[in-house]
Write a structure and sequence with these properties.
Blueprint: E1 2-5, E2 13-14, E3 19-22, E4 25-29, H1 30-34, E5 43-48, E6 58-65, E7 72-77, E8 83-87, H2 93-98, H3 100-106, E9 112-119, H4 129-151, E10 155-157, E11 160-162, H5 167-181, H6 185-189
Antiparallel strand pairs: 1-2, 1-5, 3-4, 4-9, 5-8, 6-7, 6-9, 10-11
Protein name: Hikeshi-like domain-containing protein
Family: Belongs to the OPI10 family.
GO biological process, one term: protein import into nucleus
Amino acid sequence: MFGVVFPDRSFPMDISAFSQIDPLHWLLDMNTFVGAAYYEVREMCIFLLNAALLPPEKALAVYVQVPGQPFLFCGAVHNARPSAVLSLPWPDPADIADSAAGAIQVAGAAAKIGVSVEDLAALPPVVDAGAEKRIERLALRVGENLFNFMQSFCGVDGSRLVVPMDILDRWFKKFQEKAKRDPTYLKGFAL
């Protein structure tokens, strides 16, 4: 019915790599695939092998789950969208280690990827959580760059920092010049 590829990490895998829970649900135990480093697997390509196997009003929904946490929806494929590269929004392992779920994970429970046949109309809209986090990181890094630039020109007036009026213009000009000179400069902000 479907196949998956983990970009840069696997060859195409068919449904037999998953454990079938019932006729409409499959699970992939990430321990058998990558061990405890499940969070390093950031994307998954899922594709239908044959449109005739999935009714037109149905979809294959993809979810991820870490021990002690609920399943998180990643996206879906259906006859009108027979393949998709989905971001896998694994929670930050540091956050899990700090919670009670960390104790469960240490005990040997595995992260999982679930696939299920569901009504297409009932599925939530796909939000690319991975892209949102990358954008947030980029914005924070650019803001940090601006703050550091401003801090090098500021003075103190009592409990206030004082910066020149044209500081934003100067920073933006310098930022643009660096980006033009070094094409990899902006990529460093997106790490």
